[in-house]
Amino acid sequence: MMHDIVRDLALEIAKEERFGAASDCGTMVQMDKDVRRLSSYGWKDKTEIIIKLPRLRTLVSLETVSSSPDMLSSIFSESTYLTVLELQDSELTEVPASIGTLFNLRYLGLRRTKVKALPDSVEKLYNLNTLDIKQTKIQRLPQGIAKVKKLQHLIADRHDDEKQSAFRYFVGMPAPKDLSNMLELQTLETVEASKDLAEQLKKLMKLRTLWIDNLSATDCANIFSTLSTMPLLSSLLLSAWDENAALCFDTLKPCSTELHKLIIRGRWAKGTLECPIFCGYGTHLKYLALSWCHLGEDPLEMLAPHLPNLTYLKLNNMHSAKTLVLSAGSFPYLKTLVLKHMPSVNHLVINSGALPSLEGMYIVSLTELDKIPQGIESLRHLKKLWLLDLHKDFIAQWHENRMHQRVQHVPEIRV
């Protein structure tokens, strides 16, 4: 971290050079009108003020307390050269229509604000590269969003369940009518599946990250066929419309080896592990997160032969066998293993030679796990070990077996 003296010196030089300024005093004080970059935290101004910063290029204002759009209107009218506007975690409820005057704006961040809608004038932001409205109250994108031809990163969803316990705790946005015209898109999170989505995605060949929500069994064939043609796609999330809807992956056959991160939320159709995405392509996957898949057997034993190069594996909200076994040689490159909300599991066995590269193991909310994971002390590269919210007898077992001494090579242990 930057030493306070060095930080103060850096801020003073930035101020003298009119390069930037920072304010964390809770209210905006008089600023040099020629400042070009301004960072503030906890802005508390509640009165109507006029802010004249004509040279301002970047404004980062985190956790702004003021919800009045007047403050923003003032900035928009006076700071026409603004290129970066980050208002993450603020109390903001409304974005003034005058935002459409910010011709130079390239980044607009409204993540975790209370904004319920974007003004139609957003379509005038011709130079916008990134729009981040993740975890807001916004339910629909402006009709003219496809007119923003230079948009590369569109990150948009709303969280209906802050505790993330419900199956669809986050909900995607309906695809814009002219989505197929947004040819520069590299990131699209999160879009709702529909009967037209496969056709809309066919021209978006620059996509690298794509999250799709609300998938039904009837959507899979066409949408997955389109995804298979994307040469640059590297990160993909697929979420069913319902926890009982079975997704069929027969037509998901990536045309390149770029896809390395796969997140699936929902049941699998029978025979999924024999589908091309796992049987054959699985060697290219590095990151896999599965939720609500309910494989019914030992998912670790089932997945290991197909995914030898994984570095990250998360299993969440899954019904499985009572005993999970990691055989010798399984997951040789895995760095992180997360097992969460697996109510059937009461025993975990780690055979010698399994998980030789593991650095982080997070076992959380396995409420029937009453035994110490067998072989856990053999994980010599482990740096973080979390064993939380397990069976009520687990802690007593841990202390009775003097496990802290047996895994004292692990720097961070939480039990």
From TrEMBL:
Q: Is the keyword Transit peptide assigned to this protein?
A: no
**Chain ranges of the Disease resistance R13L4/SHOC-2-like LRR domain:** 61-387
Q: Tell me yes or no: is Iron among this UniProt entry's keywords.
A: no
The record, for InterPro entries, names:
LRR_dom_sf, LRR_R13L4/SHOC2-like
Q: Keywords assigned by UniProt?
A: Repeat
Q: What is this protein called?
A: Disease resistance R13L4/SHOC-2-like LRR domain-containing protein
